[in-house]
Amino acid sequence: MEKGGYGQRLKDFLSSDTKEAKIATVALCVLALASLPVLVVGAGAIGNVVQVFKMFKGSRKYSESQIRSAINSVKRQKLIEYIVDRDGKTIVKITTKGKTRLRAFDIELIEIKTQKKWDGKWRLVMFDIPMRFTKGREALRYHLKKLNFFQFQKSAWIYPYPCEDEIIFIADFFGVGKYVEVLSVESILRDEKIKKHFHLS
C-alpha cells in the first residue's frame, strides 16, 4: 500500500460525517487502522472490536448491533479473518482480499493538494497502454478526469501541481504503472485554456 498518506486518509474519512460509505466499509477501515500490525482481542472478540469503533468520531453514530452486523459481513466476505494464537487470544487480521478492497477504497479517497502559489510548472501525465490492458487504461482515464486533470490529448493529461506519487499509485493498482510517465514541463504553447480550466491567472 501507499506509504505516507494512506493511513491519514482513512483516519480523515472515519473522522468525517461522510455518507458515501456503507458501514461495512467503515468497519474495514477501522479494523485496518486498529490492526497495525494486528488487533489482539480476548474471548469476547466482537465486543472488543466494537469498542475500537469509539476511537473514531465518524464511527460513533452507528449502534452496537449495526457494528456487529458490519463486522460479521466483512468476515463473511473474507475481508478479515480470526486467528487464535497459542495463548488462546484471537487476532483479527485483514486478508489479502481485504487489503485489495481497502486499496481500491483508498484510491477513491485520494485528493491532490493544491499549492497556495503555483510554481508555474505543468505536470504532464502520458501513457501508451497496450490494448490488452483496456480496463486499466479506462480506469486510469476515469480517475484522471475525476481528479480534474485537463485532457491535452487522448493519452496526455495535465495538472498544475505535484501529483507523481498519486498517479503512479493509481496506475500501479490497475496494473498499468510501467506504461505511465509523469513529466514536469516548464511551459506549454497556447496554455490559455489550461489556465482557465484550473483558474490560474
From TrEMBL:
UniProt KW keywords: Membrane, Transmembrane, Transmembrane helix
Record-level GO BP terms: DNA-templated transcription
Alphabetized Pfam families for the sequence: PaaX_M
Keyword Transmembrane helix among UniProt keywords: yes
Transmembrane spans: 23-50
Residue ranges constituting the Transcriptional repressor PaaX-like central Cas2-like domain according to the UniProt record: 116-189
Top-level division of the source organism's lineage: Bacteria
InterPro entries for this protein: PaaX-like_central
Gene3D superfamilies listed in its UniProt record: 3.30.70.2650
Keyword Transmembrane: yes
Signal peptide residues on this chain, from the entry's feature table: none
Protein name: Transcriptional repressor PaaX-like central Cas2-like domain-containing protein
